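Narrative summary of target 7.
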Amino acid sequence: MRLANMTWVQAKEYFDQNDIVLLCIGSTECHGKHLPLGTDTLIPEKLLELIEPKTDVAIAPTLPFGACDTLADFPGTISLGTDTLYEVLTRITQGYRAHGVRRFAVLNGHGGNNPVLDRVAVDLYRQGCLLAELNWWLMAWDLNPAWKGGHGGAEETAGVMAVDPSLVDLSAIEDMTLKPVSADMESTGFKSVRFKGVEIPMPRPVTEITDNGWIGPDHPKNATEAWGKEMLSACADYIVDFLRAFRSVPLPRG
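Modeled conformation, tokenized:
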């Protein structure tokens, strides 16, 4: 049940009887040379397709931009930044709150959005509302540890294959190469370096860490369409169950 397809009269009828909405937020950013810029939006949108027939929770239009400043040097990447994203999400959630929504389930496709979602969630809690962050890629790890992955690795590659295999450029898959910081300090991830066996946060533009844009323990060459379909189906079923339980969670006083 998509809010974008309803009239305002139908929306009023829904909000008169329901205090819950499913929001979706993604990102438009580099995911290696082999995956599309819309990976973090395409996968959640596919999940919504799987979820919609199984729930009567209204689904809001998807926000395809997020906070991804460290990836902004890759062409096609568009970042709202944390401050702008906070303002946008605040306006969206307050708009729905004005119509009676008190439970916000957010299907999120991008880890860089989480600090902002955390902040909005606390704001809403103080107003008598709840916001739950449904981070599909973390959910998948918990459902099956074999699905654990990084940014643009096999997990996300399999997810895009489940959307449309033609969106994955298999010929462009490369090995992960991380640039060292110095002779005695290596890069270990998007935000970390290792020195004398200890991991230290050192956020930098991702172009200073890798030339191809994917980082993770899961080589994308191992991804399969079957993996992606099984994984997204499991995540969608979990989200449907979560939404059912979320309806009865006691609300804060605010």
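Residues 225-246 form the longest helix (22 residues).
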